[in-house]
Amino acid sequence: MKRKIKIELNSTDELRIKIITFFQCYNFELLEINNESVLKFKNKGSLLDGWKSNPLDWKSEISIIFNQNSLEVIFNIDTLSQMKTYEELKVWEIFIETFQSFLIEGNTKNSTLISAISESKKSRFSYFGWAIIGILIGLSLNYIYSKFTNDFSILIFILIPFIVYIFLKQRISYVKLKKVI
């Protein structure tokens, strides 16, 4: 997911320290300071990104380019190993809004962000429940197949991930559609 925003400001004096403090509060690492005009922050990814319940912990890189009286902010979030549920994407949208609010008004909407992260965690457990249902259905189908054929099937290693994928994809699509309506 890539998102680019431009924020017009009256003054960019002493803003660098505030921005660094803001991102460090959310565990982003200051990657580089490039000739006083660019700040880059990064969250390192890992193989466990798909299991992280807080979307702000995903692998991401944020570049902030300072202009005369404006900032250009580029959010580059790695969503390849994620389910990309409505709730997870909402956390990122609220995080971006919180950052804009912080720069323009000087305050943050932390309670809204914390609430969105909590909702994302709850939904993540719900999706894990759907994955378990998919696993149980795959195991049941394999058990039935092996009883009829008296043969253990290697098909289980294809069938279970496929059924889990279908269950999760359907559930994520259903929730996104429900939230739009």
Provide structural commentary.
Helices cover 53% and strands 19% of the residues. It is built from four helices and five strands; from the N terminus they run βαββββααα. It has helices at residues 15-25, 86-105, 110-149, 156-180; strands at 2-8, 29-34, 38-43, 60-66, 70-77. Helix 2 (86-105) runs antiparallel to helix 3 (110-149). It is elongated. The two termini are 23 Å apart. The model has no long low-confidence stretch (mean pLDDT 82).
Give the topology, please.
Elements lengths: L1 E7 L6 H11 L3 E6 L3 E6 L16 E7 L3 E8 L8 H20 L4 H40 L6 H25 L1
Antiparallel strand pairs: 1-5, 2-3, 3-4, 4-5
Helix pairs in contact: 2-3, 3-4
Coarse morphology: elongated
Supply Rg.
21 Å
Strand order of the main beta sheet, please?
Answer: 1-5-4-3-2
Distance between the termini: 23 Å
What's the overall average pLDDT, rounded? 82
Q: Which consecutive residue ranges, at least 5 long each, have pLDDT under 50?
A: none
Question: Mind summarizing the main beta sheet?
Answer: 5 strands, antiparallel
Q: How many strands in all?
A: 5
Would you list the SSEs in sequence order as H and E? EHEEEEHHH
Percent helix: 40-55%
Q: Can you count the helices? A: 4
Which structural category do the helix and sheet elements fall into? alpha+beta
Strand residues, percent: 15-25%
